[in-house]
Write a structure and sequence with these properties.
This protein is mostly helical. Helix 1 packs antiparallel against helix 3.
Length: 133
Amino acid sequence: MEKSATDLMHDSIVAAVLDAITAWKTASGGLPNVLARELGAVHRNTTLADLPKEVQTAVRDSTRAAFNRLLKEGYTVAKGAPTRPPPMDSRPPRNDGSRRPRGPGKPPIVETKRPPRGGGPSGGGRGGPQRGR
């Protein structure tokens, strides 16, 4: 019975995870504190270069084995350019007249309806009685 590509990938991913766990145990030298510290250092932005050499080797070997298994089962693995949305700078500027264009780094123009401060008849600017000098 033929396996679907999804089933093959599930099997490959499980094998890759198990290989990586075994490699991590090997890299820690069998010391649980070292293993816990290395696993705790892994985060969402961890790259392959941040991992121990044993784990890097296990990931490379598992990836290669997964692609070879797909090819052996008759699936095609093709190189394809990833499609990305265009960068924000390449879009044409929106100038429909609703906003006045500003230069780079200038704050927005804010118009207020308040009267200016300190412009009363006493000239002090604080609104209280004037003290003699």
